[in-house]
Specification:
The structure is a single chain. It contains 4 helices and 2 strands, in the order ααβαβα. The chain is mainly alpha-helical and about 140 residues long. Strands 1-2 form a two-stranded parallel ribbon. Helix 3 links the parallel strand 1 and strand 2. The longest helix is centred in the C-terminal third of the chain and has 32 residues. It is globular, with a radius of gyration of 15 Å. The N and C termini lie far apart (about 40 Å).
Length: about 140
């Protein structure tokens, strides 16, 4: 629903990658902005600003070199949409922190875990590979 994992990933990728790389996120269905996302991003000095959840139909560009999916439904949809396109699709299984109950701190811990997993995946996939290519 483009409300938790993918907006977090989009913002973290924008922060980590060069500005020349276009990064956008969208969901299979429309969702509502999640205040816990804002809270865990603020801990890192980041903000989604006025950004609100988007669907695939909301994207202005429909050409991508790579699509990263974070949920099974999104992955299946991306594979279906790109069946006849020359685009790579990667699935990064990422837990859904909205399924966690408990105290506010327990919920925040689940959201922090997602944030840190996404940072590690982005670094491992894009920044470590970039550094390796620069030394080859």
């Amino acid at each position: 629903m483009n409300a938790v994992r993918s907006p977090m990933a989009e913002l973290l990728a924008r922060q980590a990658l060069p500005a020349t790389i276009f990064v956008a996120s969208a969901g299979v269905r429309a969702g509502e902005r999640d205040p816990f996302v804002d809270a865990v991003l603020a801990e890192d000095g980041l903000s989604l600003g006025e950004r609100h959840p988007r669907t695939l139909d909301d994207l202005e560009d429909d050409y991508f070199d790579l699509i990263v999916t974070l949920a099974p439904e999104a992955h299946h949809t991306a594979l279906e949409l790109t069946r006849s396109l020359a685009v790579d699709v990667e699935y990064w299984p990422t837990p859904d922190p909205t399924n966690i109950g408990g105290t506010r701190e327990q919920v925040m811990a689940a959201y922090r875990d997602v944030r840190e997993r996404l940072k590690a995946r982005i670094t491992g996939r894009f920044l470590n590979a970039e550094a390796k290519n620069a030394t080859d």
